[in-house]
Design brief:
The longest helix is centred in the C-terminal third of the chain and has 23 residues. 17% of the residues are buried. The chain is an alpha+beta fold.
């Protein structure tokens, strides 16, 4: 997997106040309802969420098990998550971090993610498919966060 696909990120703007946005992004019960293609979820403790997802991508069938761990939480400004993905003959480790700050209309979220390791069948998927799948999954995740906050999709999407 090339370096260009191992790191991704962006800026999202929300109407919600920073504390409310941070709460939604770090509450594991709420987070579980924002995971695209979710089959099941279990909050293990106040920092760990186990999920099963069934991605709808033609190149990836079956289910994947995700363990999402809150590695660092500094309310209402910053958090880091570690995501372990496991499937039959496939595994991936992802790190992400976010910072929330006030914005004139509510909040600004700056986020970054990094694929730390890929093994098995996931490593054989062409980079273009991985990028398209990641973009689609991230876009759906932000839509679900906006729904939870009672916000409409931004006009530029």
């Amino acid at each position: 997997m090339s370096q260009a696909l191992t790191e991704f990120g962006g800026v999202e703007r929300f109407q919600a106040a920073p504390a409310r946005l941070f709460e939604v992004l770090t509450d594991l019960d709420t987070l579980s309802r924002s995971v695209p293609d979710l089959v099941s979820a279990e909050v293990v403790d106040d920092r760990t969420l186990n999920c099963v997802v069934k991605p709808g991508f033609s190149f990836l069938r079956g289910t994947l098990k995700l363990t999402i761990s809150l590695a660092r939480v500094e309310p209402p400004e910053a958090a880091e998550m570690q995501i372990a993905v496991r499937g039959i003959g496939a595994a991936m480790q992802i790190s992400s971090e976010m910072s929330v700050s006030p914005d004139e209309a509510g909040s600004k979220l700056e986020w970054r993610g990094r694929i730390d390791s890929v093994s098995g069948l996931l490593g054989a998927i062409p980079n273009g498919l991985v990028k398209a799948a990641a973009d689609q999954t991230i876009r759906h995740g932000w839509e679900r966060v906006r729904e939870k906050l009672g916000e409409a999709k931004p006009a530029d999407q």
